Amino acid sequence: MTCTSCGAQARPDATWCSQCHEGFAPAQEAVVPGRLVPLVHPPRPDQVWSRWHKSDTSFGPVGKVSWTVGMTLFAVLFLWSGNIFAVVAWCGLAMPLVMRSVWARARVS
Ligand SMILES: [Zn+2]
User: Fold this and answer.
1) How far, in Å, is the centroid of ligand 1 from the Cα of 76?
2) How many CB atoms lie within 10 A of CB 90?
3) Into how many domains does the chain fold?
4) How many angstroms is it from 14 CA to the middle of ligand 1?
5) How far is the CA of 4 from the centre of ligand 1 (A)?
6) Where would you tag: which of 25, 55, 63, 95 has the fewest CB atoms within 10 A of its CB?
7) Please, which residues have CB within 8 angstroms of residue 59's CB and are 6 or more apart in sequence?
């Protein structure tokens, strides 16, 4: 750092000149290249999200309830059949995956 008043050299972290006692402006924070801070955008107030209403990419209430009833009927059928592998595959894998997407939150406006 060079003193703007007398031109003397000073340490980079000096707050005043040791030659003429001129005060230095506070040092600016060092810029660390390559570090990015993610910017979190809050949801815009004009967007409406829903698990129930129809959107461009999701069923309406009738479709959602129909899928749920249909999947449940097959689960009951597999339970009634006593096939433990079908029950585990259906209730442990297929139903959670399908219900998760059927009832997913979607933007409706
Ligand atoms: Zn100076």
Assistant:
1) 87
2) 19
3) 2
4) 11
5) 7
6) 25
7) 66, 67, 102
Q: Do 57 and 101 fall into the same domain?
A: yes
Query: 20 and 60 in one domain?
Result: no
Which segments of the chain have a pLDDT < 70?
Answer: 27-31, 43
Measured distance CA(44)–CA(60) in Å, rounded: 23
Per the domain annotation, does 47 fall within a domain?
A: no
Q: Domain for residue 74, yes or no?
A: yes
Q: What integer pLDDT is reported at residue 43 of this predicted model?
A: 67
Q: Where on the phi/psi map is residue 13: left (φ > 0), alpha (ψ -120 to 50), or beta?
A: alpha
Length of the chain measured in residues: 109
Whether residues 56 and 96 share a domain: the answer is yes
Could you tell me the distance, in angstroms and rounded to a whole number, from the CA of residue 34 to the centre of ligand 1? Answer: 35
| Residue with tokens 């959602």, as numbered in its chain | 64
End-to-end CA distance of the chain: 57
Task: Please report where in the chains the tokens 């997913």 appear, as a residue.
Answer: 104
